[in-house]
Amino acid sequence: MDRAPRPYANPYLAGFALGLVLLAAFVVMGRGLGASGAFASSAAGVVSAVTPTRAAGNAYFARYLVGEGPWVDWLLIEIVGVGIGGFLSAWVGGRLRIDIERGPRFSSRARLITAFIAGAVMGLGAVLARGCTSGQALTSGALLSVGS
After folding, report:
1. pTM, full prediction
2. Would you say 48 and 22 are in contact if contact means Cβ atoms under 8 Å apart?
């Protein structure tokens, strides 16, 4: 039984709510929001599982291996929550479906390959920029970071 999708949220109200979520993240966790750190933490966990001495000797990976380890990092838990929240939002809003968005002259296979390559390039850009767009705009912007 298909139902009509519900309208999107008011962008001003959603932005205000996002600001409250960011404030709560600072108060509760002592850190802001962002996505790229979760992937770096996951990479550190995989490298550490394969070659622990190599990961500990690498300055980039070593910073993710402190404390309880990379698999309980705040940003990794956040990304899991984003996935669950996105699924629930699509379900409640009547927009949950399996589909590949593409142009009329683009095959599904070409769209998936292009999306994977573009995602890899954006991930590289996030590493070079020292954070993803969400981390730069929300967290670093709220902290008045010069780079953001």
Report:
1. 0.69
2. no
